[in-house]
Amino acid sequence: MSILIRDVIVVDADGVGAEASDVLVDGERIARIAPAGSVDTGDAHLVDGRGRLLMPGFVDAHSHADGALFDSDVQLALLRQGVTTVIGGQDGVSYAPGDGAYATEYFAAINGGHPGYRGGGVAALLAAYDGATAVNAGTLVPAGTVRFVVSGRSTDAASPAELARMRALVAEGLADGALGLSTGLDYVPGIFADTEELAALAAPVAEVGAVYVSHMRGGYEANSAAGIAEVAAIARSSGARVHVSHFHAEPHLVRELVAELDLAGVDATFDAYPYTRGCSILAMPILPATLTVQPTADVVAELADPAARARLRREWFPTITRSASLGPEWPSMLTLAHVAAPEYDWAHGLTIAQGAAEASARSGTSIDAIDFALDVLVASRLEVGAVMAVQHERSDTGLAEILSHPAAIGGSDGIFIGRHPHPRARGSFARFLSMLVREQAALGWADAAALVSSRAAARFGLGDRGAVREGRIADLVLVDPDAVRATASYGEPLGLAVGIDDVLVAGVPVLAGGALTGATPGRGIRRSPGAAALGPGPLMSHRTADIPGPVVHEWSRGIEAEEQEA
Known about the structure:
Number of domains: 3
Radius of gyration: 23 Å
Enzyme class: hydrolase
InterPro entries: Amidohydro_3, D-aminoacylase_insert_dom_sf, Metal-dep_hydrolase_composite, Metal_Hydrolase, Metallo-dep_Hydrolases_sf
EC number: 3.5.1.81
CATH architecture of the largest domain: Alpha-Beta Barrel
Keywords: Hydrolase
Organism: Agromyces hippuratus
């Protein structure tokens, strides 16, 4: 099938087209890029670009759409943002290797179940996406799942024999096409893995040139320095390139810590999303890991026991009020995103404090925040998700400072489970463009293309993706530069992005006029040993003034200005 996209401004990380172009797609690849009106239409299907930007398909470098990707509503939400590829297997917990049962249970409020995977490892997981979805999916080998397959629920250090088995599973997953290795060092059982174990698991990653991806230990924000020190130690010991997941902290701290990795000779990148608040399973921030590592039935029984509750209230919850990430106001900082128990359906979108007040009113008895949170967890068999505020919300200017860093890669950390989820799942990539380019003038359009597409494609080995070039795979997005924006918000998190109405995946229209076409050309993306290098393409220049919007400075210029002021 041939498609002719007419009258577009071609944009990728190498620059912005100097003139309007026609782009001919033949099969799954870009066949020709030429001045507008110069390409014979022949029998090609025509797509009217109407002067919009034609950008390479966006890559969500940190997604939890692993199991949700087969849902057409999820595909629509992603494509309306221009996302054509998601990278799952994040935070050390996902379906493969193993039978997927642990991830389905423990991450029920994050990833949910997977309708196409019942075992068979990374190869089977990736095969489940082939031709079954409109969006591509890559995966990381999740170190927590690997640990669970080998050591079960043990909190002890891995024995040499266990470590050898873990390394073999990591190597097998990489051979099957995984893009790297992920850890989730605030989740179980990954939290029980020490630095030596993690470095050993990262060694096979280094051997094949893949990436070690880490949800760092200790809650980020003020604790980020310790997490970065461990990442650096793992990189030095294993030789692996590293990538820090959802790196959110004060902008100056992010820059300083990334600079430290660079000075230490560590090849590092990070992803971040354009919002301040986080989102996770409720059990993670409010229950001890030594409890949540147990089977769900045992945890639920413990939480339902009055004596066990009294012990948690006396010994554990005071540590939450003293924590740097939450503190004494924690009941007002956690908003219920997903509650599996039907009897608490009314609680979606309420904070724990608000929910406790409402539960008290409904029952006619006094229920405090601790009891309410534990009641919801028991009733839902732990399947509860929460949006987590931070003590110091960052401004858009602060977020732009992080996201305009040259080592930044766009990732949503998007979770599609729940009636009141974090808006990042449906808004991040549209907000990258509207906030960073149009509103904050922190990036030009070519730099934005690098953030949302080309860096991830190169970093994770996604093959011939991430650029609008003849011969490249035609994962393509048409963007209205004046209209693109997110409509999802903390109050109304289900709104779809606007300003992106036409998207191709592997040369097949999957979004047309803002609606799904029903085509499913998506596939499981297997790691390519080396992504094609970006080089100058036809009709390209670096003049961002050729399209509507501000001409902006690069991140490095901001650093130079600060140094001059100092």
